[in-house]
Amino acid sequence: DARVTQTPRHKVTEMGQEVTMRCQPILGHNTVFWYRQTMMQGLELLAYFRNRAPLDDSGMPKDRFSAEMPDATLATLKIQPSEPRDSAVYFCASGPPNVGYEQYFGPGTRLTVT
Amino acid sequence: GNSVTQMEGPVTLSEEAFLTINCTYTATGYPSLFWYVQYPGEGLQLLLKATKADDKGSNKGFEATYRKETTSFHLEKGSVQVSDSAVYFCALSNTGNQFYFGTGTSLTVIP
Question: Which one of A20-24, A26-30, A50-54 scores highest in mean pLDDT?
């Protein structure tokens, strides 16, 4: 049963530290999405890749966040420097190339910045 | 543009009650429509989908019909169980496979 994997599952860090979250999309999927979920804002799209190229990162604070896909099996989301307001659950999702197919979500990384 | 509006929660029902969670959408073209469910501490999981007008998606007793004339995709279940307690998200997918999610509706089913 193919799944999206995310590491770490939980991360507690101090303000100002760098945080790196990793995602392994399902093999054969060519779209990758990063979302952030908080109680206040709900589910927000941060970045969106197709064939490893960034298509939309307008939801991401550019000064501290960066998203990359070094290869087809790895997507990363970095925050540097982290701030308490970044505390949230970060989800990665992947999907096949055709419209009409669902996205598959990973279990999320719960980030707490103190 | 593309957007999804779903019923505000939270919703609290007794076990075996009938469930409706309303969802309406705005889209260009012919989107696909989805309902996702999120259980506590987990990621979103696909519950059901419909890819064209008048299609009915169904799974685990849940149903939703793609109504183009009313731009709606309401989620229904005839008899809810305690295990259905979760947050439900309506979503649409349009060209480029980007998804647009609603704000989520929290459902609590009490015995």
Answer: A20-24
